[in-house]
Write a structure and sequence with these properties.
This protein is an alpha+beta fold and 420 residues long. The chain contains 18 helices and 4 strands. It folds into 2 domains: 2-320, no CATH class; 341-417, Alpha-Beta Plaits. A 4-stranded antiparallel beta sheet has the order 2-3-1-4, with helices on one face. Strand 2 (375-381) and strand 3 form a beta hairpin. Helix 1 (2-32) crosses helix 15 (310-324) and helix 3 (47-57) packs antiparallel against helix 7 (108-132). The longest helix has 37 residues, at 155-191.
Length: 420
């Protein structure tokens, strides 16, 4: 058990500096590259839209579960299946935070490879979906509901919100996935056999298939997949097998596949999975056939044996605050956003929401509602889609509230005054 704990701490210390830097950059990207801005550029069924969707998705710090409401809103806004699938494929694989962490832990060439694979797989998946999709170009009706006016922020306001998102909201969103990734990596590092870097041929292909079968259903974010990939290499899997996990782990999971089947059909889902697996196998073969793969494993062993630095200790302390102490997160949020008092509200309303599939969905909806000073979320029932809110006025505008819900990627099916 001590070995398991030591492995967890060691991996956490090694990743901490890159995670903190990545979270800060992710906050800046999130503040200046909004989801609404992206939606304006992804309508239509053309190769150009596929490229746009892929390029826009690569730097966004959105996990494979958090991408679902945004993908749904893209479809509602008129984006083609191909553009939406490109976005679903490339976005979860990368992100500013994971690119920084990959560069620090696996080296710059591997980080470049990860971005390249995300780009190629997004292009291939989106293009194939458009090729095999026989539905009319404008089958999905664009959302024409008015968008709530967004207050302009000055530079200090933008900096504050970027810091809040980078060090509070984003770590909170991926906390469970990241901790699961570190825990799985610690188990692999502690209990798997010693490294054997010479496996090839049938054994190597079998390793690829094993990793694919593990990665497809598992929910892990792009950053959380890094320690697992490192642990796989340290335990004797080839760097190419680890590369497959970095691709398929974040890009696929049960929730994403269920969403795609229900909203885009079995054919689109099959094309998506085939593209991710096919590109992953090609990338794995290339990595293991070049000096990149041959030199990576010994370098990781050397890096893993280096001593602990003060920067790692400070960075891990920041991560503990950001990831593991929710009450502290609540205190900071309250300090940065002045809460309304009960006297500010004059009515309560029950909403019926369509499209929520996971706890992350509830978080996105709650954030969208609470960002409007006229509303406050009291309760969200994920299973039934029922949401109770407080409003500052005795009446509410259904169109405005519907548009607010749509900004989070969902649909307002019903609205009624809450019973006492």
């Amino acid at each position: 058990m001590q070995t398991l704990f030591d492995s967890f701490i060691r991996l956490s210390l090694e990743m901490a500096p890159y995670l903190v830097l990545g979270f800060l950059l992710a906050g800046i990207v999130h503040e200046y590259l909004s989801a609404k801005w992206i939606q304006k550029h992804l309508g239509g069924k053309s190769f150009n839209q596929v490229i746009k969707a892929t390029v826009f998705g690569i730097p966004l710090p959105i996990c494979s579960c958090g991408i679902i409401p945004l993908a749904k809103e893209l479809r509602n806004s008129g984006a083609s299946k191909g553009g939406t699938v490109s976005f679903l494929t490339s976005t979860p694989q990368t992100g500013v935070d994971s690119i920084i962490a990959t560069s620090g832990m696996l080296g710059l060439p591997f980080a470049i490879l990860r971005v390249t694979v995300a780009f190629v797989s997004g292009i291939v998946a989106g293009s194939l979906v458009n090729l095999f999709d026989k539905s009319p170009k404008n089958q999905t009706r664009a959302n024409t509901a008015p968008t709530p006016a967004k207050a302009k922020k000055n530079i200090p306001g933008k900096a504050k919100d970027a810091l809040l998102y980078g060090l509070i909201e984003l770590p909170n969103e991926i906390r469970n996935s990241l901790l699961v990734g570190l825990s799985i990596a610690a188990v692999i590092s502690a209990f798997m056999p010693e490294p054997n870097f010479g496996s090839a041929g049938v054994t190597q292909l079998l390793n690829y298939l094993i990793v694919i079968l593990i990665a497809i259903p598992l929910y892990v974010c792009s950053t959380g997949s890094i320690p697992i990939a490192i642990a796989l290499i340290m335990s004797g899997f080839s760097p190419g097998a680890a590369c497959i996990f970095l691709i398929a782990g974040p890009a696929t999971n049960i929730v994403t596949l269920t969403f795609m089947v229900s909203h885009m059909g079995y054919r689109t889902t099959l094309v998506y999975l085939t593209s991710v697996i096919g590109i992953g196998l090609l990338a794995a073969w290339w990595v293991d056939s070049t000096t990149l793969g041959q030199s990576l494993a010994p370098e990781l062993v050397h890096h893993h044996e280096m001593g602990i630095t003060p920067l790692q200790i400070v960075s891990l302390s920041i991560l503990i605050v950001s990831l593991l102490i929710p009450p502290f997160q609540d205190v900071i949020s309250k300090l940065m956003h002045k809460p309304n008092t009960p006297d500010d509200y004059q009515s309560e309303w029950d909403l019926q929401i369509e499209g929520m599939t996971c706890p992350n969905c509830a978080k996105h909806l709650e954030k969208a509602l609470n960002n409007d000073p006229n509303y406050h979320t009291q309760e969200i029932k994920l299973e039934s889609g029922e949401v109770r809110i407080q409003a500052k006025h005795k009446t509410v505008q259904e169109d405005s509230l519907s548009s607010l819900v749509q900004t989070a990627g969902y649909h307002l099916k019903g609205l009624s005054k809450a019973s006492s």
